[in-house]
Amino acid sequence: MTIICDLKRSRKLINREKIQYRLIDMLKAANILFSHSIVAPFIITIGDEWEGLLRYNSDYSRILQFFHRQLGEIDFYCGIGIGPVSIRNFELTVNQLDGPSFYLAREAIKQAKRFNKALVIKRA
């Protein structure tokens, strides 16, 4: 299960640099707190977009709730892809992995942005 999140209207945020550091700290904490569910740790992939790979049956809602608590008033989009992973070398970072789970998550985040939805889930 791949999760991709992206801050809403990030270019218009005041104190963008401060928020970027907050995001980094949040991901470090999430990777420790939810390590039992994470296959490839969350990292920032593009600007203020972050991505991680969870075990298939993980409770993604707890992780998303954690993100919401940590970010407070800052909204974000989330796309989740549920499907197989073709590159299975989990010593690599999440942005080096590949497979339908990632394609579906990318489609989901694009749809979330297009229709201004907080969460879109796509399954194989």
**Number of structural units classed as domains:** 1
In the CATH hierarchy, the architecture is 2-Layer Sandwich
Identify low-pLDDT runs.
none
With helices defined by DSSP (H or I, 4 residues minimum), what is the helix count?
3
Radius of gyration: 14 Å
N-to-C SSE string, H for helix and E for strand: EHEEHEHE
Strand content: 25-35%
Per DSSP E runs of 2 or more residues, the count of β-strands stands at: 5
CATH superfamily: Reverse transcriptase/Diguanylate cyclase domain
**What value does the average pLDDT take?**
92
Concise overview:
The protein contains three helices and five strands; from the N terminus they run βαββαβαβ.
